[in-house]
Every structure is written in C-alpha cells, then in structure tokens.
Amino acid sequence: MKKKDYLKEIIKHIDIKKYNVVGMIDDMGNMSFSSRELARAAKIYDMMLRDKKCSIILTLAGSLFSAGLKKVVYDMVINNMVDAIVSTGAIIVDQDFFEALGFKHYRGWWHNIDDNELRELHIDRIYDTFIDEDELRICDETIYEIANSLEPRPYSSREFIEEMGKYLKKNAKNKESVVLAAYEKKVPIFVPAFSDCSAGFGLVKHQWENPQKHVSIDSAKDFLELTKLKIKAKETGIFMIGGGVPKNFTQDVVVACDILGYNLPMHKYAIQITVADVRDGGLSGSTLKEASSWGKVDMSWEQMVYSEATIAMPLIVAYAYHKGAWRNREEKRYLEWLNTDAKNLNECLKLAK
C-alpha cells in the first residue's frame, strides 16, 4: 500500500448543534448505572452555565480532537460555555493548531496493521486514527517560526498560545480552530506541560539555534496566572475530560490560593469523564470525592462519569447547549485581564483584604 491508500478518509468532527438530546438525557436520569451518572453530569454542567457567579474551567487530556471532538470544544468557546481551558499540548498543538494550518486527521484501523510499514511511509497512528508525519513536521516548524518572532524571555504557555492565536488570525487555512476562537473570544488556554508535544520540537530547535537569548516556557507562571484567575473568579466549576496534568493543575489552584492567604471556596461544581480505574492509585482515576479531602472540590455538585470521551462528552455538552443557558451568560474575557499584570495583581491584593 502507498501513503495515499492510508490517508483518504478524513475524521469528521461531530456537531452537537444538530442533535437535541435534552429529552433523551432527562429520561436517562430515570434509569440506573452509567446512564443516570451521565444525566446528572449533564445537569450539573447546565447548573454551572446558569450560575451567574460561576466561572467554568474545561480540562482536556487524551487524543480528543484527532478523534472528532474539536468542534464540540470550538462550539463551547464561541457560545460562551467555557471561561478558561487547561489542556495537554498534543490537543492544542498537534491536533487543533495542526488542523488550523490546513491539515487533517484520517480514519484508520488498529487490527491487521503493520506499524513498521506506517513508519516507513511517515504515517503516525493513534489507535484507529492516522496522521501524516510530514505535515506534523510543518506544525513543528511553524512553532519554531513563532518563537523566533518573539522577544526572547520566559512566557507562560498561555502567553505563547495567544501568539499562536495571533498567527492563525492572519494565516489560518481552517478557521474552525479552538486556538483561534479562544484568542478572539479572550478565553485563556493553559498547557502546563507545553513542551510535551509538537511545540517542544519547535522550541528545542529555537533554543538550539539561540542558546543565549531565547523564548522559554515558565510553568510556574502558568500556575500563578491560573491562581490569579481563581482569585478573580472566586466561584468556579470544572469540567474535566480525562485526567493527568490538566486535572491536577486545575484542582491545585484552590490550594495555591490558600497558601497565598486567600480564603476562597473549593471548586463549587466538578464533572470528570474518564475510563481510568480508581483502584490503581493514579490521579486520572481518583474520584472527585477524594479531591475534597485535599480541599480542592466541594462534594455538593460533583459527578464522575466512567465512559470514553467520544461517547459521553458530545451528549453532556449537547444537553447544555440545547437547554440554552449560555445565551444569558456574561463573557468573562479573562485573557484580556491576565494581560494587564499590574492591574490584575492589584485587584487580587484588594480581593485578599
């Protein structure tokens, strides 16, 4: 087989606006097991959107956008259903930014596949999804070019991703991008492990060629900025897809506020979609009730949904979208606020008093 024989069927992103699942989800709430849990999670998300004091943080881990969930998050951003995003680098760079440059993910398969042949053809595989490695290298190179264009100094990932949004504003071939939409709607995106993706390759090349003065990513600055956001917001809800670093990073800001002397409430609402097993002791499978023991999550409105994300996330978000509470939400535009360092620090100090 040749490369074109593998890369021919494009992954299509599901459009939640087409499917009004409200009645079905309400009926699932009268069932048992995972159906009732998913229905409760959908209603908690709707509660977040109706709570005028609540700021919503979406966390993303796993190969989500390559699997067809990009448009779900895109619709959340443009319809004011999320106020900040914390993600892995692969989702934001290798998948969203990659597609914004005009590239695609392709339907593949996992059975009877010769991965050695894929490697020789420069095709990367994520379970049953194929990606053109040569196109990913262009994504790496674009990150390198963006880094070269910036003032050499430490940046939070949020600041660098904002620069990626500026780049896409001028150069995107596919405008249906979460990075671009977040830039335009002033929704900050944080990637605490930013170098663990295509961005890392671009930054390695940039720093290799500029050993003295270069762009770097300051993960502590990320943590500080998200902590400031929590101080500003006070009441927060978290909607977590998968676990990993984005989950822990977002939950930890409550403790960070406490260490800085801010007596702020735990995350008021919390939903997590995961397939991780609680029994292995890993963070991704740890329950939201367990997080309460750390002083991170309030137990009043929390729900674990044990499901694969491509099944559960479109149902939960579609339910909240068609309920329509987002129409009455005020835009938080935290990206603008975070860019005024002196202003937001002074405001945080006043809130502390």
How would you concisely characterize the structure shown here?
The protein has helices spanning 3-6, 22-28, 33-50, 65-78, 89-100, 115-120, 133-149, 157-171, 178-185, 198-209, 219-233, 244-259, 288-293, 309-323, 334-338, 341-352, and strands spanning 54-60, 84-87, 106-107, 123-126, 129-132, 154-155, 189-190, 216-217, 235-241, 267-274, 297-306. It is α/β, with parallel strands linked by helices. The protein has a single domain, classed as Deoxyhypusine Synthase.
Describe this structure in words.
With 353 residues, this protein is an alpha/beta fold. The protein has a single domain, classed as Deoxyhypusine synthase (Deoxyhypusine Synthase), CATH 3.40.910.10. It is built from 16 helices and eleven strands. The chain has helices at residues 3-6, 22-28, 33-50, 65-78, 89-100, 115-120, 133-149, 157-171, 178-185, 198-209, 219-233, 244-259, 288-293, 309-323, 334-338, 341-352; strands spanning 54-60, 84-87, 106-107, 123-126, 129-132, 154-155, 189-190, 216-217, 235-241, 267-274, 297-306. The chain has a six-stranded parallel sheet, sandwiched between helices. A three-stranded antiparallel sheet has the order 3-5-4. Helix 7 (133-149) crosses helix 10. It is globular and about 55 Å long. The protein starts with a helix and ends with a helix.
